Protein backbone atom coordinates (compact mmCIF):
# COMPACT_ATOMS: atom_id res chain seq x y z
CA UNK A 1 0.00 0.00 0.00
CA UNK A 2 1.37 3.39 -1.06
CA UNK A 3 0.15 6.97 -0.82
CA UNK A 4 -1.28 8.06 -4.15
CA UNK A 5 -2.63 11.55 -3.45
CA UNK A 6 -3.20 14.19 -0.78
CA UNK A 7 -6.03 16.72 -0.77
CA UNK A 8 -6.92 19.69 1.43
CA UNK A 9 -10.21 21.53 1.94
CA UNK A 10 -10.64 24.56 4.19
CA UNK A 11 -13.96 24.94 5.96
CA UNK A 12 -15.43 27.38 8.43
CA UNK A 13 -17.93 26.06 10.97
CA UNK A 14 -20.02 28.51 13.05
CA UNK A 15 -19.74 28.82 16.81
CA UNK A 16 -22.62 29.62 19.13
CA UNK A 17 -20.93 32.98 19.83
CA UNK A 18 -17.50 34.63 19.44
CA UNK A 19 -15.01 33.37 22.03
CA UNK A 20 -12.60 35.83 23.67
CA UNK A 21 -9.06 35.02 24.74
CA UNK A 22 -5.97 36.96 25.79
CA UNK A 23 -4.72 37.53 22.23
CA UNK A 24 -8.02 38.32 20.56
CA UNK A 25 -10.96 36.14 19.64
CA UNK A 26 -12.45 33.36 17.61
CA UNK A 27 -14.77 35.52 15.52
CA UNK A 28 -17.88 33.37 15.73
CA UNK A 29 -16.46 30.50 13.71
CA UNK A 30 -13.55 28.10 13.42
CA UNK A 31 -11.45 27.90 10.27
CA UNK A 32 -10.02 24.40 9.83
CA UNK A 33 -8.31 22.63 6.96
CA UNK A 34 -9.35 19.03 6.35
CA UNK A 35 -6.72 16.70 4.91
CA UNK A 36 -7.41 13.53 2.92
CA UNK A 37 -4.60 11.08 2.16
CA UNK A 38 -5.59 8.53 -0.49
CA UNK A 39 -3.75 5.26 -1.05
CA UNK A 40 -3.32 3.24 -4.22
CA UNK A 41 -5.83 0.66 -2.97
CA UNK A 42 -8.58 3.25 -2.59
CA UNK A 43 -8.49 3.97 1.14
CA UNK A 44 -8.79 7.57 2.35
CA UNK A 45 -7.34 8.69 5.68
CA UNK A 46 -8.42 11.89 7.40
CA UNK A 47 -6.43 14.65 9.06
CA UNK A 48 -7.13 18.18 10.25
CA UNK A 49 -5.25 21.34 11.14
CA UNK A 50 -6.26 24.83 12.14
CA UNK A 51 -5.90 28.30 10.69
CA UNK A 52 -4.20 29.36 7.50
CA UNK A 53 -7.06 28.92 5.08
CA UNK A 54 -5.73 29.01 1.52
CA UNK A 55 -2.13 29.05 2.76
CA UNK A 56 -2.73 25.88 4.79
CA UNK A 57 -4.29 24.22 1.75
CA UNK A 58 -1.27 25.16 -0.36
CA UNK A 59 1.14 23.88 2.30
CA UNK A 60 -0.67 20.55 2.48
CA UNK A 61 -0.74 20.14 -1.29
CA UNK A 62 2.96 20.96 -1.45
CA UNK A 63 3.61 17.76 0.53
CA UNK A 64 2.61 15.63 -2.46
CA UNK A 65 6.23 15.34 -3.62
CA UNK A 66 7.16 14.05 -0.15
CA UNK A 67 4.25 11.66 0.19
CA UNK A 68 3.27 10.10 -3.13
CA UNK A 69 4.71 6.60 -3.21
CA UNK A 70 5.38 6.53 0.54
CA UNK A 71 4.21 3.57 2.62
CA UNK A 72 1.82 5.00 5.26
CA UNK A 73 2.99 2.32 7.73
CA UNK A 74 6.45 3.94 7.78
CA UNK A 75 5.56 6.69 10.20
CA UNK A 76 9.04 7.25 11.62
CA UNK A 77 10.45 7.72 8.13
CA UNK A 78 7.56 10.10 7.46
CA UNK A 79 8.50 12.16 10.51
CA UNK A 80 12.00 12.82 9.22
CA UNK A 81 10.89 13.26 5.61
CA UNK A 82 8.49 16.06 6.56
CA UNK A 83 9.82 17.51 9.82
CA UNK A 84 13.54 16.84 10.11
CA UNK A 85 14.48 18.86 13.22
CA UNK A 86 17.31 20.80 11.58
CA UNK A 87 15.39 21.46 8.36
CA UNK A 88 12.50 22.62 10.54
CA UNK A 89 14.61 25.57 11.64
CA UNK A 90 13.86 26.97 8.19
CA UNK A 91 10.49 25.38 7.43
CA UNK A 92 8.56 24.18 10.46
CA UNK A 93 6.03 21.59 9.34
CA UNK A 94 5.01 20.24 12.75
CA UNK A 95 1.29 20.89 12.27
CA UNK A 96 1.39 19.54 8.73
CA UNK A 97 3.12 16.39 9.98
CA UNK A 98 0.41 15.97 12.60
CA UNK A 99 -2.38 16.13 10.03
CA UNK A 100 -0.62 13.62 7.78
CA UNK A 101 0.11 11.32 10.74
CA UNK A 102 -3.59 11.35 11.66
CA UNK A 103 -4.46 10.39 8.10
CA UNK A 104 -1.84 7.64 7.90
CA UNK A 105 -2.99 6.10 11.19
CA UNK A 106 -6.54 6.28 9.86
CA UNK A 107 -5.49 4.43 6.69
CA UNK A 108 -3.51 1.82 8.63
CA UNK A 109 -6.48 1.16 10.90
CA UNK A 110 -8.80 0.79 7.91
CA UNK A 111 -6.36 -1.54 6.17
CA UNK A 112 -6.10 -3.77 9.25
CA UNK A 113 -9.74 -3.40 10.28
CA UNK A 114 -8.91 -2.02 13.75
CA UNK A 115 -9.41 1.33 15.52
CA UNK A 116 -6.42 3.63 15.91
CA UNK A 117 -6.30 3.04 19.66
CA UNK A 118 -5.50 -0.63 18.98
CA UNK A 119 -2.47 0.53 16.99
CA UNK A 120 -1.35 2.58 19.99
CA UNK A 121 -1.41 -0.16 22.60
CA UNK A 122 -5.14 -0.69 23.11
CA UNK A 123 -7.66 1.42 24.95
CA UNK A 124 -7.67 1.55 28.73
CA UNK A 125 -10.96 3.45 28.91
CA UNK A 126 -14.08 3.42 26.77
CA UNK A 127 -14.77 7.13 27.11
CA UNK A 128 -12.73 10.24 27.75
CA UNK A 129 -13.95 12.81 30.31
CA UNK A 130 -13.96 16.49 29.35
CA UNK A 131 -13.97 19.84 31.12
CA UNK A 132 -16.57 22.45 30.24
CA UNK A 133 -14.04 24.94 28.75
CA UNK A 134 -15.70 28.28 29.43
CA UNK A 135 -15.01 31.53 27.60
CA UNK A 136 -16.04 35.11 27.92
CA UNK A 137 -18.11 35.60 24.79
CA UNK A 138 -19.62 38.33 22.65
CA UNK A 139 -23.27 37.93 21.79
CA UNK A 140 -24.04 36.12 18.54
CA UNK A 141 -24.37 38.82 15.88
CA UNK A 142 -27.45 37.19 14.36
CA UNK A 143 -29.41 36.22 17.46
CA UNK A 144 -28.09 38.62 20.09
CA UNK A 145 -27.71 35.64 22.42
CA UNK A 146 -24.74 33.92 24.04
CA UNK A 147 -22.95 36.82 25.72
CA UNK A 148 -20.77 35.88 28.71
CA UNK A 149 -19.30 38.96 30.39
CA UNK A 150 -20.51 39.09 34.00
CA UNK A 151 -20.17 36.58 36.84
CA UNK A 152 -23.92 35.96 36.64
CA UNK A 153 -23.81 35.23 32.91
CA UNK A 154 -20.82 32.92 33.42
CA UNK A 155 -22.62 30.94 36.12
CA UNK A 156 -25.82 30.71 34.06
CA UNK A 157 -23.91 29.54 30.99
CA UNK A 158 -22.03 26.93 33.02
CA UNK A 159 -25.27 25.70 34.55
CA UNK A 160 -26.70 25.19 31.05
CA UNK A 161 -23.61 23.28 29.92
CA UNK A 162 -23.61 21.13 33.03
CA UNK A 163 -27.28 20.26 32.53
CA UNK A 164 -26.78 19.47 28.85
CA UNK A 165 -23.46 17.60 28.98
CA UNK A 166 -22.81 16.57 32.59
CA UNK A 167 -19.53 18.43 33.15
CA UNK A 168 -18.08 18.31 36.65
CA UNK A 169 -14.77 19.98 35.77
CA UNK A 170 -14.79 23.59 34.59
CA UNK A 171 -12.02 25.52 32.88
CA UNK A 172 -12.28 29.29 32.47
CA UNK A 173 -10.31 30.95 29.68
CA UNK A 174 -9.17 34.31 30.99
CA UNK A 175 -6.68 37.00 30.10
CA UNK A 176 -9.46 39.21 28.71
CA UNK A 177 -10.60 41.42 31.60
CA UNK A 178 -8.54 42.83 34.52
CA UNK A 179 -7.17 39.98 36.69
CA UNK A 180 -9.10 40.94 39.83
CA UNK A 181 -12.37 40.93 37.86
CA UNK A 182 -11.60 37.49 36.41
CA UNK A 183 -10.69 36.22 39.87
CA UNK A 184 -14.15 37.33 41.05
CA UNK A 185 -15.77 35.54 38.10
CA UNK A 186 -13.76 32.40 38.82
CA UNK A 187 -14.73 32.50 42.50
CA UNK A 188 -18.40 32.95 41.60
CA UNK A 189 -18.13 29.87 39.42
CA UNK A 190 -16.60 27.76 42.19
CA UNK A 191 -19.18 28.93 44.72
CA UNK A 192 -22.05 28.11 42.34
CA UNK A 193 -20.98 24.49 41.79
CA UNK A 194 -19.82 22.95 45.07
CA UNK A 195 -18.20 19.57 44.62
CA UNK A 196 -16.95 20.35 41.10
CA UNK A 197 -13.33 21.10 40.18
CA UNK A 198 -11.88 24.14 38.45
CA UNK A 199 -9.08 25.41 36.23
CA UNK A 200 -8.09 28.85 34.99
CA UNK A 201 -6.05 29.74 31.90
CA UNK A 202 -5.21 33.36 30.93
CA UNK A 203 -2.87 32.32 28.10
CA UNK A 204 0.21 33.76 29.82
CA UNK A 205 -1.21 37.31 29.87
CA UNK A 206 -0.20 38.09 33.47
CA UNK A 207 3.09 39.31 34.84
CA UNK A 208 4.71 37.16 37.51
CA UNK A 209 3.50 39.64 40.16
CA UNK A 210 -0.05 39.61 38.77
CA UNK A 211 0.02 35.81 38.57
CA UNK A 212 1.10 35.54 42.20
CA UNK A 213 -1.69 37.89 43.28
CA UNK A 214 -4.29 36.02 41.22
CA UNK A 215 -3.19 32.69 42.69
CA UNK A 216 -3.40 34.05 46.21
CA UNK A 217 -6.94 35.29 45.51
CA UNK A 218 -8.16 31.84 44.43
CA UNK A 219 -5.82 29.44 46.27
CA UNK A 220 -8.56 28.27 48.62
CA UNK A 221 -10.82 27.04 45.77
CA UNK A 222 -10.89 23.41 44.53
CA UNK A 223 -8.34 24.09 41.79
CA UNK A 224 -7.12 21.22 39.66
CA UNK A 225 -4.47 23.52 38.25
CA UNK A 226 -3.79 27.04 37.03
CA UNK A 227 -2.55 27.05 33.46
CA UNK A 228 -0.06 29.41 31.80
CA UNK A 229 -0.61 32.23 34.27
CA UNK A 230 2.53 33.95 33.01
CA UNK A 231 4.92 33.49 30.10
CA UNK A 232 7.88 31.12 30.08
CA UNK A 233 9.16 28.31 32.22
CA UNK A 234 11.16 30.65 34.41
CA UNK A 235 8.08 32.75 35.07
CA UNK A 236 5.96 29.73 35.91
CA UNK A 237 8.75 28.35 38.09
CA UNK A 238 8.41 31.42 40.30
CA UNK A 239 4.82 30.41 41.16
CA UNK A 240 5.56 26.92 42.42
CA UNK A 241 5.77 27.97 46.05
CA UNK A 242 2.09 29.00 46.12
CA UNK A 243 0.77 25.47 46.55
CA UNK A 244 -1.46 25.27 43.45
CA UNK A 245 -0.48 22.90 40.60
CA UNK A 246 0.79 24.72 37.50
CA UNK A 247 -0.02 23.53 33.97
CA UNK A 248 1.05 24.53 30.47
CA UNK A 249 0.26 24.01 26.83
CA UNK A 250 2.55 26.79 25.60
CA UNK A 251 6.04 26.33 27.03
CA UNK A 252 6.31 22.52 27.09
CA UNK A 253 5.28 21.55 23.58
CA UNK A 254 8.32 19.57 22.42
CA UNK A 255 10.82 17.14 23.87
CA UNK A 256 13.60 19.69 24.47
CA UNK A 257 11.22 21.73 26.60
CA UNK A 258 9.98 18.59 28.34
CA UNK A 259 13.57 17.67 29.21
CA UNK A 260 14.18 21.17 30.56
CA UNK A 261 11.08 20.88 32.74
CA UNK A 262 12.22 17.52 34.09
CA UNK A 263 15.69 18.87 34.92
CA UNK A 264 14.38 22.04 36.57
CA UNK A 265 10.64 21.71 37.17
CA UNK A 266 8.42 24.64 36.23
CA UNK A 267 5.07 22.93 35.62
CA UNK A 268 3.27 20.01 37.22
CA UNK A 269 0.86 19.19 34.38
CA UNK A 270 1.66 19.02 30.65
CA UNK A 271 -1.27 19.47 28.28
CA UNK A 272 -0.64 17.30 25.24
CA UNK A 273 -1.99 18.61 21.93
CA UNK A 274 -2.04 16.17 19.02
CA UNK A 275 -1.34 19.05 16.60
CA UNK A 276 1.26 21.03 18.57
CA UNK A 277 3.34 17.91 19.28
CA UNK A 278 3.21 16.71 15.66
CA UNK A 279 0.77 13.81 16.00
CA UNK A 280 -0.77 11.31 18.36
CA UNK A 281 2.36 9.18 18.64
CA UNK A 282 4.64 11.97 19.94
CA UNK A 283 2.02 12.74 22.58
CA UNK A 284 2.16 9.13 23.74
CA UNK A 285 5.96 9.31 23.92
CA UNK A 286 5.73 12.53 25.93
CA UNK A 287 3.13 10.99 28.25
CA UNK A 288 5.56 8.14 28.90
CA UNK A 289 8.23 10.61 29.99
CA UNK A 290 5.69 12.36 32.21
CA UNK A 291 4.68 9.01 33.72
CA UNK A 292 8.31 8.27 34.56
CA UNK A 293 8.81 11.60 36.33
CA UNK A 294 5.34 11.75 37.91
CA UNK A 295 4.19 14.77 35.93
CA UNK A 296 0.49 15.03 35.23
CA UNK A 297 -0.87 15.00 31.70
CA UNK A 298 -4.09 16.19 30.11
CA UNK A 299 -5.34 16.36 26.52
CA UNK A 300 -5.30 19.88 25.09
CA UNK A 301 -7.72 21.43 22.61
CA UNK A 302 -6.57 23.70 19.79
CA UNK A 303 -10.07 24.28 18.38
CA UNK A 304 -11.13 20.99 16.85
CA UNK A 305 -13.72 19.62 14.48
CA UNK A 306 -14.65 15.95 14.60
CA UNK A 307 -11.53 14.61 12.90
CA UNK A 308 -9.11 16.12 15.39
CA UNK A 309 -11.52 15.35 18.23
CA UNK A 310 -11.22 11.69 17.21
CA UNK A 311 -7.42 11.92 17.54
CA UNK A 312 -7.87 13.37 21.04
CA UNK A 313 -10.22 10.53 21.98
CA UNK A 314 -7.85 7.83 20.74
CA UNK A 315 -5.00 9.51 22.61
CA UNK A 316 -7.03 9.78 25.80
CA UNK A 317 -8.12 6.17 25.51
CA UNK A 318 -4.59 4.74 25.73
CA UNK A 319 -2.84 6.91 28.34
CA UNK A 320 -2.58 5.17 31.71
CA UNK A 321 -1.59 8.43 33.43
CA UNK A 322 -4.48 10.54 32.12
CA UNK A 323 -5.88 11.66 35.47
CA UNK A 324 -7.34 14.97 34.28
CA UNK A 325 -10.38 15.62 32.08
CA UNK A 326 -9.54 16.71 28.54
CA UNK A 327 -10.15 20.16 27.08
CA UNK A 328 -12.38 20.71 24.06
CA UNK A 329 -13.86 23.74 22.33
CA UNK A 330 -16.18 21.24 20.68
CA UNK A 331 -19.40 22.07 22.53
CA UNK A 332 -19.20 25.68 21.30
CA UNK A 333 -19.68 24.49 17.69
CA UNK A 334 -23.15 24.50 16.14
CA UNK A 335 -22.32 21.61 13.78
CA UNK A 336 -19.53 19.35 12.55
CA UNK A 337 -18.25 18.01 9.21
CA UNK A 338 -18.43 14.31 10.10
CA UNK A 339 -21.17 11.83 9.30
CA UNK A 340 -23.90 12.07 11.91
CA UNK A 341 -22.90 15.57 13.01
CA UNK A 342 -21.43 16.39 16.39
CA UNK A 343 -20.39 13.56 18.71
CA UNK A 344 -22.44 13.59 21.90
CA UNK A 345 -21.27 14.04 25.48
CA UNK A 346 -22.56 11.56 28.04
CA UNK A 347 -22.09 12.41 31.73
CA UNK A 348 -19.28 14.79 30.85
CA UNK A 349 -17.46 12.31 28.60
CA UNK A 350 -17.38 11.29 24.92
CA UNK A 351 -17.18 7.59 23.94
CA UNK A 352 -14.02 6.55 22.12
CA UNK A 353 -14.71 5.63 18.46
CA UNK A 354 -14.48 1.89 17.84
CA UNK A 355 -14.73 1.75 14.04
CA UNK A 356 -11.69 1.11 11.82
CA UNK A 357 -9.08 3.85 11.80
CA UNK A 358 -10.13 7.08 13.46
CA UNK A 359 -13.72 5.85 13.38
CA UNK A 360 -15.15 9.02 11.82
CA UNK A 361 -15.86 9.83 8.17
CA UNK A 362 -16.51 13.12 6.41
CA UNK A 363 -20.06 14.09 5.51
CA UNK A 364 -19.70 15.30 1.90
CA UNK A 365 -22.71 17.62 2.09
CA UNK A 366 -21.51 19.26 5.30
CA UNK A 367 -17.97 19.64 3.96
CA UNK A 368 -19.28 21.28 0.79
CA UNK A 369 -21.57 23.61 2.78
CA UNK A 370 -18.85 24.78 5.15
CA UNK A 371 -16.23 25.04 2.40
CA UNK A 372 -18.62 27.38 0.59
CA UNK A 373 -19.14 29.33 3.83
CA UNK A 374 -15.37 29.72 4.09
CA UNK A 375 -15.22 31.04 0.53
CA UNK A 376 -17.94 33.55 1.43
CA UNK A 377 -16.56 34.70 4.79
CA UNK A 378 -12.83 34.06 4.49
CA UNK A 379 -10.53 33.83 7.47
CA UNK A 380 -10.19 36.06 10.51
CA UNK A 381 -7.20 37.30 12.54
CA UNK A 382 -7.02 35.08 15.61
CA UNK A 383 -4.81 37.63 17.34
CA UNK A 384 -7.24 40.56 17.04
CA UNK A 385 -10.48 41.41 18.84
CA UNK A 386 -13.43 42.46 16.65
CA UNK A 387 -14.81 44.49 19.55
CA UNK A 388 -11.62 46.57 19.94
CA UNK A 389 -10.39 47.73 16.51
CA UNK A 390 -6.67 48.45 16.46
CA UNK A 391 -6.05 46.69 19.78
CA UNK A 392 -3.33 44.16 20.36
CA UNK A 393 -2.03 42.76 23.68
CA UNK A 394 1.31 43.13 25.35
CA UNK A 395 3.01 40.24 27.17
CA UNK A 396 2.52 40.65 30.04
CA UNK A 397 -0.66 42.50 29.18
CA UNK A 398 -1.99 45.73 30.63
CA UNK A 399 -4.54 46.57 27.92
CA UNK A 400 -7.56 44.78 29.35
CA UNK A 401 -11.07 44.83 27.95
CA UNK A 402 -13.64 46.75 29.97
CA UNK A 403 -16.06 44.22 31.51
CA UNK A 404 -18.72 46.93 31.78
CA UNK A 405 -18.82 47.46 28.00
From TrEMBL:
Location of the Mandelate racemase/muconate lactonizing enzyme C-terminal domain: 151-245
InterPro entries: DgoD-like, Enolase-like_C_sf, Enolase-like_N, Enolase_C-like, Mandelate_racemase_C, Mandelate_racemase_N_dom
Signal peptide: none
Alphabetized Pfam families for the sequence: MR_MLE_C (PF13378), MR_MLE_N (PF02746)
SMART domains: MR_MLE
Pathway entry: Carbohydrate acid metabolism; D-glucarate degradation; 2,5-dioxopentanoate from D-glucarate: step 1/2
Enzyme Commission number, as recorded: 4.2.1.40
Enzyme class: lyase
UniProt catalytic activity: D-glucarate = 5-dehydro-4-deoxy-D-glucarate + H2O
Gene3D superfamilies named among the record's database cross-references: Enolase-like C-terminal domain, Enolase-like, N-terminal domain
Xref: PANTHER family: D-GALACTONATE DEHYDRATASE-RELATED (PTHR48080), GLUCARATE DEHYDRATASE (PTHR48080:SF4)
The protein, known as: glucarate dehydratase
Organism for this UniProt entry: Virgisporangium aurantiacum
Amino acid sequence: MKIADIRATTVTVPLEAPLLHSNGAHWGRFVRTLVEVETDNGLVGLGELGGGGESAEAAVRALADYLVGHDPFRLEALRFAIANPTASLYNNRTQLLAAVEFACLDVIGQQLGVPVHDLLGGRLRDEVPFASYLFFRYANASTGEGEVRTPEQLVDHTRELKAAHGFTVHKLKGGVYPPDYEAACYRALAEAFPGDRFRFDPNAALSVAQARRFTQLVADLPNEYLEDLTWGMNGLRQLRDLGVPIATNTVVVNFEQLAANVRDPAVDVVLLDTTFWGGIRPCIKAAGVCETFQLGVAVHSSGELGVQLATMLHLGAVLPNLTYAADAHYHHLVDDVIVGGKLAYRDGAIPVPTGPGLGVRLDAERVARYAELYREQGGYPYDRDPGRPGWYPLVPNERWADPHV
